[in-house]
TrEMBL record:
Lineage: superkingdom: Bacteria
Regions crossing the membrane: 7-27, 33-50, 62-82, 88-113, 151-175, 187-208
InterPro entries assigned to the protein according to its UniProt record, in alphabetical order: ECF_trnsprt_substrate-spec
Keyword set, alphabetical order: Membrane, Transmembrane, Transmembrane helix
Originating species: Enterococcus silesiacus
Keyword hit for Isomerase: no
Protein's name according to its UniProt entry: Metal ABC transporter permease
Pfam families: ECF_trnsprt
């Protein structure tokens, strides 16, 4: 697992890259917004994957991450017929809370790219990887992790905020994908038109996070002890 300093470093790097993406798109008036945005979001994901590959890999931990990713993908698949209702984000949040920021990011980003094998890959995939990855990472930050474990109110609130973050960030991609330029009017129009979807998604996150947390936490604790996963 990553220590506090390492997590903060990765978080700062990711946010700096995201800031550069926004500045480049809004101020520099570059012509290839889709290519630039994809490269920058991939670059934002890179530090955590790089650090994870450099450490001594525990095969048991990799299997656990793969299983959690599969469960998250299954959750998205089972509820795909109900718009904005899915336990996938909740599973990503719980993974971050129980196993730390690094695992939370990996489960989130891997769930995005894996589930899109079923739902369709495209230029939006790196944005989803970054969004769900950051939701898992922040949930695993030590100062927040303790509060989320102790209080269902904090857990529900984080699920709601995660829903807003995902919707707002993905709407940025939608604006750029229309004509490769950014418009505040179009962005606000998209946010307003997506209010029912966003609200459903937020409260879905809150419900599934609270409903599944203790069960998944208990199972993960038993696995960590039984297989001696640090």
């Amino acid at each position: 697992m990553m220590n506090n300093r390492a997590v903060n470093r990765v978080l700062i790097k990711s946010l700096c890259i995201l800031f550069l993406f926004i500045v480049g798109a809004v101020l520099l008036q570059a012509s290839q917004y889709q290519i630039i945005s994809m490269l920058l979001v991939i670059a934002a994901c890179f530090p955590i994957y790089y650090r994870y590959e450099r450490k001594q890999i525990n095969i048991k931990e990799l299997v656990l991450i793969a299983v959690l990713t599969a469960v998250a993908v299954l959750g998205r698949f089972l509820f795909y017929m109900i718009p904005a209702i899915t336990p996938m984000t909740a599973i990503i949040i719980i993974s971050g809370i129980c196993l730390g920021a690094e695992v939370g990011f990996l489960v989130g980003s891997l769930s995005a790219v894996t589930s899109n094998i079923l739902f369709g890959q495209g230029p939006w995939t790196p944005f989803q990887m970054f969004s769900w990855g950051m939701i898992g990472l922040v949930a695993g930050l030590p100062w927040l992790q303790k509060r989320l474990k102790k209080s269902y109110w904090f857990l529900a609130l984080y699920g709601i905020l995660a829903g807003f973050f995902f919707s707002f960030f993905m709407d940025l991609w939608t604006v750029f994908s229309i004509d490769r330029s950014f418009s505040w009017q179009r962005y606000l129009a998209l946010l307003l038109s997506a209010v029912p979807y966003t609200m459903s998604y937020c409260f879905s996150n809150a419900f599934f996070s609270c409903f599944l947390f203790r069960t998944i936490q208990t199972k993960l604790q038993r696995i960590l002890v039984k297989y001696d996963i640090k």
